[in-house]
Design a protein that fits this description.
The complex is a heterodimer of chains A (253) and B (421).
Chain A (H helix, E strand, L loop, with lengths): L3 H12 L3 H7 L1 H8 L5 E7 L4 E7 L2 E6 L6 E5 L2 H8 L14 H19 L3 H4 L2 H25 L1 H8 L4 E7 L4 E7 L2 E5 L8 E5 L2 H8 L5 H7 L2 E5 L1 H18 L1
Parallel strand pairs in A: 1-4, 5-8
Antiparallel strand pairs in A: 1-2, 2-3, 5-6, 6-7, 8-9
Chain B lengths: L9 H13 L25 E5 L2 E4 L4 E4 L14 H13 L9 H12 L5 E5 L2 H16 L3 E5 L26 E4 L4 H10 L4 E6 L15 H14 L2 E5 L12 H4 L6 E4 L10 E5 L1 H8 L11 H17 L1 H22 L4 E4 L6 E4 L6 H11 L3 E2 L14 H21 L5
Parallel strand pairs in B: 3-13, 5-6, 5-7, 7-8, 8-9
Antiparallel strand pairs in B: 1-2, 2-3, 4-10, 9-10, 11-12
Helix pairs in contact in B: 2-9, 3-9, 10-12, 11-12
The chains are: A alpha+beta (253), B alpha/beta (421).
Chain lengths: 253, 421
């Protein structure tokens, strides 16, 4: 069972939030952004759900929580409707920034199309190693953020979070990307950089294993036994994080 | 230079790689790398080929002093001659038969004469079988639905005893589970009131011997107040003595705390490794349990009953609870001194017979896991997340060697972390 509100939080912070990483890591995204002469900010405000502002410039993209005087504002009447916007089933209608509509139609759409290409790759596209690595890296950040949203919003995810002690978990692909899952009073926040002093560590051996894990081709516990997933520290935090990872698959399948 | 060279596990790894092809996770559950927390996996032995007394040997021929005791069943020592002789003698007479052996009656009588709160015994195989029967019986007896657990509980892996976020568990499987903190009678009352008194039972281990945390022993006053609260509210008090049973008190851990549980679950130390468990209880619960639909293919096999009788008789002769307290204290005092010699703060908690260890120099357990791994790879088998177990075959010399290996491992970890010292 999934619920629309949790999905909306995932769509906002994990899916749209990955535009930050796309714009940093992908040459094609950088090309798309290069045409921007000045920064453009775009906010989604979902009734009874998440609200965030994405600011794009020729240098990249960043997401901030809340609606912060954006150039374009898109209010959405419900979590369900927002999820349909992300799925491409409903066209978003801005109430502010109609003069910037071309950004929405061209630049933003081009970026989200590119993100979809990488996040929902074809088998053929994955044969290109560079594409595969980029796709896996973006998936990693999406999952890392989605996990925190599930811990904070989903009823069963909250149960997992309720067993977690305070501290930073380092979640990463060995010698590559690392994120911090910060736990404080059973509320989780994902920070897209390594923690300074982790209380627990979970790392995947390489991109191939990470991809297999993210796509459900292998199981984390079995890989732990095999030695391709390493854990250290407060294992109860990792145990519960694994249960959140299981639910990410449910939402992002 | 380490006094105790690290073991090699090449053959063990070969077996494990074979196992990964034909057994899910290679070794699943608490005896394996994931639940057993083998961090890092290279330091652990994977499989054993033989065992004797307080020791087992791995596939590479390495010898280990074992303080996990198969996670409890090894209570007298592996291959105890008296228990094994009784089992073998029974095997020659018969084991799994259509009409259960008369030795089943003798085993039940022995338990009733040993366990203070027992007026009867119902036999199964694993701890989970008994905790499940206990919870079902509490519901059948009271015609109520909810069960109170105490925080950090573990009562086996059947669906009802797992948590809502575990794989394969439905919210409906655990929707009648309520959780109260330890040592808080007011919290029990609040749960009772919040649920309109729909409480069938309270299931708990004798004290808080949870994982990843210092263990907290209970007091007689606490259990006496819980007993009174259960009596006042018609709640069935279930003691899960699967882990601690016969290691604190041969008359049951409820007796150790000066009370009588309504139902008490035994398994691990019951028959020194022969596969059986038992639910015992007071006369007032017997009719209810008699009416339960609950059985299993091997639950009345005779060999474990023979082993159980021999095991209980020998535990009585040795006064194992007193012995375990003495040996556990001696061992852990030595560990603490070895830690201190190397600048580590080793916290020892829980009962000496089931001691729990934690290096407190950091709050992540990473140093602790490193030390445990260095101990294991030098022949001292400990666990980084779980309480340990003492067995009766442990000698003073074994304890001396254990402390020496522990000190050597502390020394290795200290040298690996010059930044800390």
């Amino acid at each position: 069972m999934t619920d629309a509100k949790t999905m909306a939080y995932i769509n906002m912070y994990a899916v749209l939030g990955t535009l930050e990483n796309l714009c940093e890591l992908d040459k094609k995204a950088k090309e798309i952004l290069s045409s921007l002469k000045s920064p453009v900010s775009l906010a989604f405000e979902v009734k009874d759900g998440p609200a965030a502002t994405l600011t794009f410039s020729s240098k990249g993209c960043r997401m901030e929580d809340g609606v912060n005087n954006p150039d374009i504002k898109i209010p959405v009447s419900s979590c369900e409707k927002f999820n349909k916007i992300i799925d491409g089933e409903v066209t978003p209608v801005p109430t502010k920034g109609l003069t910037k509509i071309s950004f929405l139609l061209k630049t933003f759409t081009a970026l989200t199309d590119r993100l979809t290409e990488l996040m929902r790759p074809t088998e053929e596209a994955l044969k290109d190693r560079e594409f595969f690595v980029l796709s896996t890296r973006l998936t990693f950040y999406t999952i890392a953020v989605a996990m925190s949203q599930i811990a904070n919003q989903d009823a069963i995810g909250k149960a997992s979070a309720s067993y977690m002690v305070d501290g930073d978990i380092s979640l990463g692909i060995k010698n590559c990307d690392t994120a911090t899952i910060r736990v404080k009073d059973h509320h989780l926040v994902t920070i897209k950089k390594a923690p300074e002093k982790p209380r627990a560590i979970m790392s995947f051996a390489d991109y191939d294993l990470a991809s297999d894990l993210f796509n459900g081709r292998v199981n984390a516990l079995e890989e732990l036994c095999r030695g391709t997933v390493e854990i250290h520290g407060m294992a109860s935090m990792i145990d519960n994080m694994n249960r959140l990872l299981d639910r990410v698959a449910l939402y992002l399948a | 230079m380490s006094k105790y060279p690290e073991y090699n596990h090449d053959k063990g790894r070969e077996y494990f790689d074979r196992a990964l092809k034909v057994i899910p996770a290679g070794i699943y559950g608490h005896l394996g790398p994931s639940e057993g927390l083998w961090i890092p996996i290279q330091k652990w032995p994977f499989y054993s080929t033989k065992a004797q007394g307080s020791y087992f040997w791995d596939a590479d021929g390495n010898k280990y002093i074992d303080y996990m005791c198969a996670y409890g069943p090894n209570v007298l020592g592996y291959n105890d001659p008296d228990v094994d002789a009784a089992a073998k003698a029974q095997l020659e007479k018969g084991n799994c038969t259509t009409a259960p052996s008369t030795i089943m009656v003798e085993c039940a009588e022995n338990l009733v004469n040993t366990v203070a709160s027992a007026d009867w015994a119902f036999f199964c195989k694993n701890g989970s079988d008994t905790t499940t029967l206990a919870v079902m019986s509490a519901r059948a007896h009271t015609h109520k639905r909810k069960i109170i657990f105490l925080k950090g509980y573990y009562h086996g892996d059947f669906q009802w005893a797992q948590k809502v976020d575990y794989p394969g568990i439905l919210p409906e499987d655990v929707c009648h589970n309520l959780v109260a903190p330890w040592f808080d009678i007011d919290a029990l009352q609040k749960l009772y009131d919040d649920n309109d008194g729909d409480i069938a039972g309270l299931i708990a281990q004798p004290y808080d011997h949870g994982n990843f945390k210092d263990n907290e022993v209970a007091s007689r006053e606490y259990w006496q107040s819980v007993r009174k609260w259960c009596d006042d509210h018609g709640v069935v008090l279930i003691f899960d003595d699967v882990r601690a049973g016969f290691r604190l008190d041969l008359a049951g851990s409820d007796h150790y705390y000066g009370i009588k549980a309504d139902l008490i679950c035994f398994c691990k130390a019951l028959a020194n490794g022969y596969n059986m468990s038992a639910l015992c209880g007071g006369e007032h619960m017997k009719a209810t349990v008699s009416g339960m639909t609950y059985t299993g293919s091997y639950w009345m096999s005779a060999v474990p009953f023979a082993a159980c009788i021999a095991c209980i008789n020998k535990m009585k002769a040795l006064d194992t609870p007193t012995l375990f307290r003495k040996l556990g204290t001696q061992l852990t005092d030595g560990f603490k001194a070895a830690a201190q010699n190397n600048g580590f703060d080793l916290v020892v908690s829980g009962e000496p017979a089931l001691f729990y260890l934690r290096i407190a120099n950091d709050d992540s357990l990473m140093l602790h896991q490193e030390w445990i791994a260095e101990c294991v790879s030098r022949g001292l088998f400990l666990a980084s997340h779980h309480n340990h177990f003492i067995n009766a075959s442990l000698t003073e010399d074994d304890i001396k060697v254990s402390i020496d290996i522990a000190e050597d491992a502390f020394n290795v970890v200290r040298k690996n972390h010059p930044e800390l010292f």
